[in-house]
Request: fold
Amino acid sequence: MTLQYQWQLADELPMVYGTCICIYCALQADVKVGTDIYVALALFGYSAVVTLVYVQIRKPVFHQIAYGLEVAIVLVRSMLHQIEVRKTNARAYSELVHMFWLGVGAFGVSFVLWNIDNIFCTNLRALRAVLPAPLGPLFQLHAYWHIGTALGCYASIVYQQYLRLVKLGTVDRFRIRRLAMVVPYIDRCEKTE
Reply:
């Protein structure tokens, strides 16, 4: 770990908190009216427990397991939603699958690069020291972790928004567009009269 512990917490704990929001959205996508306060309280409790335990034990593997559990919940629930949507709306299913794999791919590649950076940190620093200055940032693999997870989180958020439109039966009023043919966003369809 290269950050002071309190800054490491500021880097890692928001991942837990943000993923709790994705879990809530994934679990509540079918709810037509109102919210389930028990789900919200359970996720708040999970976040609080993870925070308190992590502050005390100071073991990064604890955070990795806590965060990995959350990601697994989002992935499984998303796949179950896709199975349901596949039966009723082929276009929406196709869009959901694309966003799902964009998010999974971005997180997966980022995770691999982050671990390479952790394992070979000394070697990468030595390599950056001998490379010309403009090439050094190409080997800042931890930076790619942040870029990739940001893309993965964004894809997950758009996925959850689009899924909610499907579940509410209003998805035909919207379409997915892509910035640079990759980054999805939801756009309202133009009215045809």
The first strand starts at residue 174 and ends at 179. The two ends are 60 Å apart (CA to CA). Strands lie at 174-179, 183-188.
